[in-house]
Write a structure and sequence with these properties.
Length: 69
């Protein structure tokens, strides 16, 4: 049991020190890289934007309109 705890503790300490050495990359840079290098991500992004635009148009039809004829 003590050997298991020793290995688990060692693994945890090793992993936490490794994680602290990783570079911090801003999320915006990661998203831009995904949009640039993964066409499927870009397609999904633009399809989502189109659907959001369609939703805005649908909601606009619910507002009252003024006809000046």
């Amino acid at each position: 049991m003590k050997i298991k705890m020793f290995f688990l503790t060692t693994a945890f300490i090793t992993q936490s020190t490794y994680a602290s050495e990783l570079p911090v990359i801003p999320l915006r840079d990661l998203v831009n890289a995904a949009l640039t290098h993964q066409p499927s991500v870009a397609v999904s992004y633009y399809e989502t934007e189109k659907k959001n635009s369609d939703l805005d148009l649908s909601r606009a039809a619910l507002y009252p309109t003024l006809d000046l004829t």
